[in-house]
């Protein structure tokens, strides 16, 4: 393999590792899984706005944390990884139609917020007596908040780091 073929693999491995590490802080306070999910690592979803090649590192990070973090289960891996992959694939399909980075980030926020129905469905399947709609409301609201907070941070970081160029 040439350096140009290895580089995306290494960058995606680093993104996956950062996702897991950024989940550990909220996990210590039970905020990385369940009906309220305040995962700072969700901000890494915005990397796909800059270059779709980041999708694999993001999804790998989600799968790793869901497989080995608090609340680890096969359902968590399937629904968590599936939700991220679905939202990111729809993003890469729709994003080229949008002119500005901010429009793509807003689309990303909407896609991840709406797709939290998959996580709410998983939680209601795994927990008896948990209602879908209140769970969807809290998970979607959590996602909306964290993705909205991290969007300007990722935008500012991109101005310095040029995310699209890093993974080429």
Automatic annotation (TrEMBL):
Superkingdom in the source lineage: Bacteria
InterPro entries: QueT (IPR010387)
Keywords: Membrane, Transmembrane, Transmembrane helix
Bilayer-spanning residue ranges: 6-33, 77-94, 106-127, 133-157
Protein name: QueT transporter family protein
Organism listed in the record: Lactiplantibacillus paraplantarum
